[in-house]
Amino acid sequence: MLRKHVVAPLVRVFLVPAFLALTLAGASAAQKVTATIDISEQKLYLYVDGRLRNKWPVSTARKGYRTPIGSYRPTRLEADWHSRKYNWAPMPHSIFFLGGYAIHGTTDLKNLGRPASHGCIRLAPKHAARLFNLVRQTGHGDTRIVIRR
Q1: d(CA 80, CA 91)
Q2: CB neighbour list of residue 134: distance below 8 Å, 6 or more residues apart
Q3: Looking at the predicted structure, is the pLDDT value of residue 64 above 90?
Q4: Residue 99 near residue 84 (C-beta atoms within 8 A)
Q5: How far apart are CA 18 and CA 15, in angstroms?
Q6: HEC sequence for the chain
Q7: pLDDT tens sequence across 105-124
Q8: Are the CB atoms for 104 and 128 separated by under 8 Å?
Q9: How many Å from the N-terminal Cα to the C-terminal Cα in the chain?
Q10: Is the pTM of this model over 0.85?
Q11: Burial classification of residue 72, based on how many CB atoms lie within 10 Å of its CB (0-12 exposed, 13-18 middle, 19 or more buried)
């Protein structure tokens, strides 16, 4: 039978660090991601756990089209997608949030920072990939997409 003077140090040495490690691992896995798109600035602000991580230029809807305003959760992720509506245009790293509306990569880099899309939110491919991977890691439920004028 183990005595108290033997058990107490074992608990401190082994169980407390194990508990702390599991607690900290759980805390990092529960991060919250918010992608805030400011249409007037044509910028995406990426927040992780409430802290600004990145600020990237985007293209939203050009004249005659609209980008929906509001707060959304991702509905699906597609690493390699093409638009059925717009001549199979490539939409790499698509994060769909309302019907056919998505945040995705674009090859039209010269137009980033000004309205140019049919309503989707376009990003540079490397930024779209980073956001896509972060959302996939974080999960739909802990990701918010906020679009404002």
Answers
A1: 7
A2: 33, 46, 48
A3: yes
A4: no
A5: 5
A6: CCCHHHHHHHHHHHHHHHHHHHHHHHHHHCCCEEEEEECCCCEEEEEECCEEEEEEECECECCCCCCCCEEECCCEEECCCECCCCCCCECCCEEEEECCEEEEECCCHHHCCCCCECCCEEECHHHHHHHHHHHHHHCHHHEEEEEEC
A7: 999 999 999 999 999 999 99
A8: yes
A9: 70
A10: no
A11: middle
If you search the block for the tokens 């756990």, which residue do you land on?
A: 49
CA separation, residue 59 to residues 67, 112, 127 (Å): 10, 5, 13
